[in-house]
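Q: What does the predicted 3D structure of Transmembrane channel-like protein look like?
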Amino acid sequence: EVFLPEETRAAAPVDFLQELPSYQSALRRRAAAGGTQERRAAPQGSAGLRAAEARGPEQEGGELGARPAREYPLSIAEKRRLRDCQQADIKYLSGWKQWKTTSSKSLKKVLNEVKEFSSYLELWRHDIRSIEGKFGTGIQSYFSFLRFLVLLNFIIFILMFSFVTLPTVISEYGIFNSSFAKIAPKNIEPHCTVYKPSGNKGLVYFYTYFKDLLSGTGFLEVTALFYGYYTIDAAWLSIMRYNLPLAYLLATFGYLALSLLWIIKRSGEGFKQNLVHDEDQFQSYCNKIFAGWDFCITDPNAAQLKHRSLQYELQTDLEEERLKRKIADRTMKEKLCIYSLRIFINITVIAVLSGCFYSIYRATVFSQENSNVSIGHDIKTDSANLLVQYLPSMVITLANFIAPLIFSFLIRFEDYSPAFEIRLTLMRCIFVRLANIGVLLFSLWSQISYCATDKCKACGYNYELYPCWESEVGQEMYKLMIFDFIIILAVTLFVDFPRKLLVTHCSCKPVQWCGLQEFGISDNVLEIIYGQTICWIGTFFSPLLPAIATIKYFIIFYIKKISLMHTRKPAARPIRASSSNFFFLVVLLIGLILAFIPLGISIAHIPSSKACGPFRSFNTSWAVVPDTIRGFPTGLQQVLHSIASEAFAVPFFMVICLVMFYFIALAGAHKRVVEQLREQLVMVRFDPFFCTPKV
């Protein structure tokens, strides 16, 4: 043990480190680079402060102006001395540098105040922090994700309302001396342009309005909520001509691109954290043991739950290690048995999925063929008709409920690790939820595209059943969203609350054994991602659907908060906040990519309605793009055609490949550097060169 004098004990470790050759070489490299890197070094301890005071104003003025004293790892007294030095050295600078330093400090102060003020305007700031304090960061990540979807849908609504709905309303009502034009489609049979919405006429009962509100028919069909309302070819706002078909298509591409970029930006940080957590198993053990506690927790029950969660994670890791050893020791006969069982179970899963898809297809066909056959004027007939219209939504909801239960039961026999069991079950549930929407749209398209007569073939779609098929698809998406909200509300009111009352006031063993329903983060996330996928697909057919989604998620936030606080308990197997945020965004990105497929088919392949909508003069919705390009100057047309040609596409693809290979090589180099740094961190424990003397 080394004994040092009293006055040098505090500064000894710093002086010792500054005497290392690596520190001296680093100083020489910074000096050779012109002092650029030197500005990043903070004076540490009393020795660092003396070094800062020793440097003259000419050498230190830029550094002192660049970093405030509070950013240095010094004591309060040393920070005060450093601040006095900074203020004294400013007078040695030129007028331009003094103004630059003063303005930089003022701007930074203003930005910090604006950032602090904006944090108070953050939606649900207090509620989310309260949830985080009681239940930890895992459940808090779900509510933060819900807030993100509220903001995303609100911005999508602003985009569609500003570029599609507002110009249409202004031109139709003649506001600001505006007008609109409706150009009759050319070379189109007259019977294809007939569209008579089923609006309410004469004496209308109250329950009829209620039925229309649930199904999107009647008075809602002729409002700005659906595609058929925007039957305008051009709008004149004062002297400016507004191309509504082009604006409608570009706004659709805009909200899809905005969603994609925002999700990728938010998922970048989560991906890096998840990569760091999963890189090294030994590091995972250290993180759980030494840094696994969530210091945001203040509730005793949540603390006990966190204890059990850490215990469960360690047991899961040990179980995975045991399974790895078991897998390594398997004989050929055991491998053959387990692989055969897995093949059989996967065949069963495919059969369950096929049954769900076929049920949705038959329900959709039956609903489309019979929903408008018997429209009566009594409540029984209208109620039956409403049930027929909601039949696809009910079948989809039933499939989303039954299929995950079957998957959770079958996964137990496949002998996977616990972590992989959760991932595989979630991926199957994601697939069944999102694929159900695709099957519904496929069923609708099969009905829309079915033509048995020459008149129908002349229109390109089934004009008799679907004179404005885009509005019909919008109504189906609207019903899916409304029914999904009704189910979430009904489960909370009629399942969770009665169960809470029974568990609280009934001492029967079966009731106590069942207990409260767990607040499963993954299941709740799948619910809202399913609804968000519906919103992305339906916004093209119902431009105001994002406004409904915003209101829906706003209400769901409080429903889930009340459910968490009063009727449910946190899951016994919570997931880490960093990995959960990344998982949420990855699943959301999958939903967005799957939404591209039906929208792309609807825009580029299926003929647009000739009786309604902004694209009635075009064969498809995409046809408005080449038609607009033909109105450009000849030189600009040639440039755009050159960009779209193979002569440009092939070199551009090669450049993209080279850039991609460069970033792959750069990532590999960074990975090797990280591995070397890890090796050096391990050597710190054994190499006395890195160790400081004991005091």
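A (community wiki): The structure tokens above were generated from the sequence. The two ends are 7 Å apart (CA to CA). The longest helix spans residues 332-370.
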